[in-house]
Amino acid sequence: MLRKRYFTVLFALMLLVLSACGNTDTKDTAAAKEKKTAPKPAPTEMILATTTSTQDSGLLDVLVPMFEKENNVKVKTIAVGTGQALEMGTKGEADVLLVHAPAAEKEVVDAGNAINYKRVMYNDFILVGPKENPAGVSGDDIKAAFKKLADSKATFVSRGDDSGTHKKELGIWTAENIKPAGDWYVSTGQGMGQTLQVAAEKKGYVLTDRATWLAQEKNLDTLQIVVEGGKDLMNIYHVMQVNPEKHDKVNSKDAEKFVNFMIDSKTQDVIEEFGKKEYGQSLFFKYTE
């Protein structure tokens, strides 16, 4: 009888232990499931003001999704001329800037409107023109080419939008003491891609960054590169965050993350590789400080 009671108690204890284990497993499984299905925090939002060349070349289509995924940030990209992008930064209308007009950028940084100023990458400017090349320009001397264009009044198409490329163009005219005007000088007020299209239609000459040219070249069969490789044609891009001490509504946390992302070695490698497969050469080259 005692032995029977012993086994009865033992069996009851075993059932209790198994029940406890089952409850624990169920609780653990439920907890794990709840953790797994917990909603992801809503992404923060950040405004990137940048030049049209980074957009038209397709580079941002690669970099922005990388940044968004790594940081749970939704980026609103506003691609305009560098002058307008810098103005947005000065007014606190953007969080971070990616531009390519060093002299104008320095003014914004020196005025305290931007901080965390970093060099990111570079490519170069080139002069493209009609395949017939009526002005007969060639070589690597961009100043001599511009003088020849003005003397011959060959059709020249300018962005006319205060972009980094437009600023570069104006600097070359100024260096040669030339004030371009007249029917031969066409100002589009548009981005690089649209301006190249106008130049193709009018069979005119145009200063462009190489990245946009390579990305658009297949649609520009009336144009070719006529001047390239000169020391005056380097095109340097910088990234900077808008100063939160002057503009307290900016998203400085994500802006700082974006600056760090752009100069990170992994991102730099992506920049250097961009375009190689499709165009046979890099559209941009890494250039960190």
From TrEMBL:
Residue ranges of domain PBP in the record: 41-264
Gene3D superfamilies recorded: Periplasmic binding protein-like II (3.40.190.10)
Protein name: Substrate-binding domain-containing protein
SUPFAM superfamilies: Periplasmic binding protein-like II
Coiled-coil region: none
Alphabetized UniProt keyword annotations: Signal
Keyword Signal: yes
Organism for this UniProt entry: Neobacillus novalis
Keyword hit for Cell membrane: no
Entries under PROSITE patterns matching the protein: PROKAR_LIPOPROTEIN
Signal sequence extent: 1-22
